[in-house]
Write a structure and sequence with these properties.
This protein has helices at 11-23, 36-42, 108-116, and strands spanning 2-5, 27-28, 45-52, 55-63, 66-75, 88-91, 121-126, 129-134, 137-149. With 155 residues, the protein is of the alpha/beta class. It has one domain (2-154): Brix domain (Rossmann fold, 3-Layer(aba) Sandwich), CATH 3.40.50.10480. A nine-stranded mixed sheet has the order 2-1-3-4-5-9-8-7-6, with helices on one face.
Length: 155
């Protein structure tokens, strides 16, 4: 899975993209002047962070150059920590499929695994907020405004 930014991103958007790439075990790709089609030719699944007035505001998932899911959000500043490559888990019910974020699923087997093992990367879901924790320390807070399923537009 790839994560990148819109063209000419602000420093805050770049730091959020790099953090999410590390936390979710994605690969961060510097977009440069490449179009979505050019990036999609190399990678079939990608996330793009777009911004409004220099602040990251949208996280859009593309599969084969088609937008599938769009999340509108506001985030706090990222606390810099060294992050390993362990899988993240969601605690609570997110408004989207956690498998899109390479997280342990919320099915019977996933919940059983979560109870038996200790995970370093946790994403707590409380109403419209996501709280990213690493080693039980808060690293990022994110408020979700809306989640749009864009797949119906292509059917």
């Amino acid at each position: 899975m790839i994560i990148t930014t819109s063209r000419k991103p602000s420093r805050r958007t770049r730091s959020l993209a790099k953090f999410l790439a590390k936390f979710l075990n994605f690969q961060y790709v510097n977009r440069g002047k490449n179009s979505i089609e050019e990036i999609s030719a190399q990678y079939s699944d990608l996330w793009i962070i777009s911004e409004i007035k220099g602040n990251p505001a949208f996280l859009t998932y593309y599969h084969s150059a088609n937008p599938i899911l769009k999340i509108s959000f506001a985030s706090s500043n990222v606390k810099k920590v060294e992050i390993d490559e362990s899988p993240p888990i969601f605690i609570g019910k997110p408004p989207f499929d956690p498998l899109l974020f390479n997280a342990i699923p919320q099915n019977f087997a996933g919940l059983k695994l979560i109870r038996k093992l200790e995970f370093k990367k946790k994403i707590f879901v409380k109403k419209d907020r996501l709280y990213f924790y690493y080693n039980d320390e808060p690293v990022l807070g994110m408020r979700i405004f809306s989640v749009q399923n864009l797949i119906e537009k292509y059917r």
